[in-house]
Prior knowledge:
Elements: H1 4-10, E1 43-44, E2 46-49, E3 73-75, E4 80-83, E5 87-94, E6 98-102, E7 111-116, E8 126-127, E9 133-134, E10 139-148, E11 161-167, H2 171-183, E12 192-198, E13 202-203, E14 210-211, E15 214-221, H3 227-239, E16 246-247, H4 253-256
Parallel strand pairs: 1-16, 2-11
Antiparallel strand pairs: 2-3, 3-4, 5-10, 5-12, 6-7, 6-10, 8-9, 10-11, 12-15, 13-14
Amino acid sequence: MTTELEKKHTGIVAFEDFLTTDRPEGKDEGELGNEGIGREDVTMPRIGLAQMMSPEINPTHERSIDGLKFNELFHTGWRKPLGPGPLHFVILRRYDPRWIEFFPIDQGGGVKEFNVQKGDPRTDFTTGTDGKRVKPIATMFYDYIVLLLNDLDLTNPMNNVVALSFKSSGLKAAKNLNMLIQARGQKLLPKGVYRIAAGKPATDKKSQGTYAVYVVDNAGWLKPDSEVEKMAIGMFESWKDRSAPKIDTDTTAEEIDDSLANNPPPDDMPQM
């Protein structure tokens, strides 16, 4: 350990003397040094919900998480189960829906086309020969970048920045979250606090398979002018001009969908 007297004679400066956790004010101009960092260069961890076929609950899978059980939330970056919730969060950025086409499970699964555009026939519901509704070929996702308020460390808030990525049975939760956002009126997005939890498992009418579902709800507002509100607004401003990051999702067949993988959506599944 270097003493204070030794520092004076050697020119050593303690890092505490020049380190601050406060974000610099304003916007720098010119070349910033972060040019060229694209979507494929960044991976955003996400909050997931364990399904029966999720690799995270399979102890033999490389993505397994110790102690994780069906119908529990988990963090792909922290690699730990978070229980049934609720988790509280504010939204830093929401994105328009996107679609991915996967190879069928009987063909091994995996991504066939990562970016299927809105309006493509593969994004539409169709009618089968039996007259029943058939879900789109491409899987729809709603993505959000959020700041978790649970166990938030103000000196390292980026550790709590994570994605919520809803698909399949999770689309109903995403639609509900969008409705809650709109209901708040003319308020900055990061001021509202929401909670997410694992709901009561549902059963598919056709296959009788059980699957986990998300439940989202309002949880209030951040205290005006509080340190957390100021930080959340700063993060919101920072994310406004950024393109959607690559979200940490497995693209193996078992992660493509939940237990409804090869079945039409339930009757209450939202249509586009």
